[in-house]
Specification:
Strand content: 5-15%
Number of strands: 12
Mean pLDDT: 90
Number of helices: 15
CATH topology of the largest domain: Aspartate Aminotransferase, domain 2
Radius of gyration: 26 Å
Distance between the termini: 18 Å
CATH architecture of the largest domain: 3-Layer(aba) Sandwich
Shape: globular
Number of domains: 3
């Protein structure tokens, strides 16, 4: 299919009559040129000359080309693209939520939802204070690091370095840099874990503020020395930051506070069932232990006998980091999700996330190379090592599209050459996983007998294989 066939202007014909567009029933503004400069005014609408039925069919056809978690498995590792129950969407769109003006958020109903959601997250993570202001995960990371920085400043301690393992999420070092820290990277050992000897050596530096850790990490591996890691950091006066983007398999099973962490950010748009992707909105709440509560962004919510009130201007806070209270609609969806599942339901989410990932892992390693052969948590990483006929990760990923499924995250984490990172999530059935396994097995057999089929894939998508290098260096951002 030609790329231009997706443009509606290519479908217009020489119809005798154009589409009828009524004139506006307002007087022409004499000072229009002042309000809107002439260069931005349109002489004509330049609408395509197409009957309404063809317009409808065109856009319905485009919508069918979209792939989403509602149409099939979406196994993007590190992103938790799980199904979002529609009841959460219905609840968030109730007029008393969706029509609430941000300046009205200081009413008792909205404040109670924010307060109760904070309490739920505190119970889930073990943290004693939360802010729901951050807009997304990376924003939560920045908020947590600013809290860490403020803590040391308030105690007149100079700390300007952060330890980040190479198995962490890619946003960790970027967020640390934005917060004013320099980065000390630790290389994972043969088990995909933090090497304790390297950590102890790094913590000899008096300027190290602490560690940012993703656990389970991007390899899907739970660090078995986690309590020893946090102890080493604490013994040297550092703080431990938990990247909670991979919390899905930990729900109801293991809490960051119990691992020894002081600060945690979560992703409501991953773990707590708010649609993920498409540009947002997201939500990245940050939780802290008791001694760090004074440094949380303001305003903070405090429950008193006469109702819920807001705390502001304490002097120790890092200040407001988002307008109003954050993404209120996202918070409502996550609150509905947590209440509908309850404690036992959330625990089953964690259990099935681990079960599904390990089922997929044990089956796929029959054909594909598994660099870290361990029980995984929510995700695992394969590689293109040992694939026949010089077939690469990209070849496999592109061929998956021809089968009508979505590819895993590829070439990340960077510590695995030719990485393919799979996260099936808890919402996929065994039948769905078996169908996906069949696709990967078929592709392996094609790699053996028909390698050119993979090297030229995809064949059945609206857009064929792109020149990724040229696209990155010379992107076409508009037609």
């Amino acid at each position: 299919m030609n790329r231009d066939s997706t443009l509606i202007f290519t479908k217009q014909n020489n119809r005798e009559h154009n589409n009828f567009v009524p004139l506006l029933d307002i007087e022409e503004l004499e000072d229009l040129d002042v309000i809107l400069p002439k260069k931005y005014q349109r002489e004509s609408l330049n609408l395509p000359n197409i009957p309404e039925i063809e317009i409808v069919r065109h856009y319905i056809g485009l919508s069918k080309k979209n792939y989403s978690v509602d149409t099939g498995i979406y196994p993007l590792g590190s992103c938790t693209m799980k199904y979002n129950p529609k009841i959460n969407e219905v609840i968030s769109r109730l007029p008393h939520f969706s029509q609430l003006h941000p300046l009205q958020e200081r009413n008792q109903g909205a404040l109670e939802i924010i307060s109760e959601m904070s309490n739920c997250l505190s119970e889930i993570t073990g943290m004693e204070g939360f802010t729901l202001q951050p807009a997304a995960g990376a924003h939560g990371e920045l908020t947590g690091l600013l809290i860490m920085k403020k803590y040391f400043e308030e105690n007149n301690i100079v700390k300007n370095k952060i330890i980040v393992p190479d198995s962490a999420h890619g946003t960790n070092p970027a967020s640390a840099k934005m917060a004013g820290f320099s980065i000390i990277e630790l290389t994972s050992n043969e088990f995909g874990e933090v090497p304790l000897d390297q950590l102890e050596y790094a913590m000899q530096d008096e300027f190290v503020a602490g560690i940012m850790l993703t656990n389970p990490n991007t390899l899907g591996v739970f660090d078995r020395n986690i309590k020893e890691i946090t102890r080493i950091v604490h013994d040297k006066g550092g703080l431990c930051y938990y990247d909670g983007a991979n919390l899905n398999p930990m729900l109801g099973i293991c809490r960051p506070k119990d691992m020894g962490f002081d600060i945690v950010h979560l992703n409501l748009h991953k773990t707590f069932s708010t649609p993920h992707g498409g540009g947002g909105p997201g939500s990245g709440p940050v939780g802290v232990v008791k001694r760090l509560i004074p440094h949380l962004p303001e305003p903070c919510i405090i429950t008193k006998d006469k109702g819920i009130v807001c705390r502001e201007n304490t002097g120790a806070s890092i200040g407001k980091i988002r307008a109003f209270w954050g993404s209120f609609g996202v918070i409502v969806k996550a609150y509905a999700y947590v209440l509908s599942l309850g404690a036992e339901g959330l625990k089953r989410v964690g259990q099935f996330a681990v079960l599904n990932a390990n089922y997929l892992r044990t089956r796929l390693q029959e054909k594909y190379h598994l660099p870290y052969n361990r029980i995984c948590q929510h995700e695992f990483v394969l590689s293109d090592k040992n694939l026949p006929n010089e077939i690469t990760t990209e070849d496999v990923a592109k061929r998956i599209l021809d089968y009508g499924a979505y590819s895993p995250t590829i070439y990340f984490p960077l510590i695995v050459n030719g990485a393919m990172m799979f996260e099936p999530t808890e919402t996929e059935s065994k039948q769905s996983l078996d169908a996906y396994i069949d696709i990967l097995f078929n592709i392996y057999e094609e790699a053996v007998s028909k390698p050119e089929l993979l090297k030229n894939a995809p064949h059945d998508t609206p857009v064929r294989r792109l020149d990724a290098v040229t696209a990155a260096r010379n992107p076409i951002l508009h037609d």
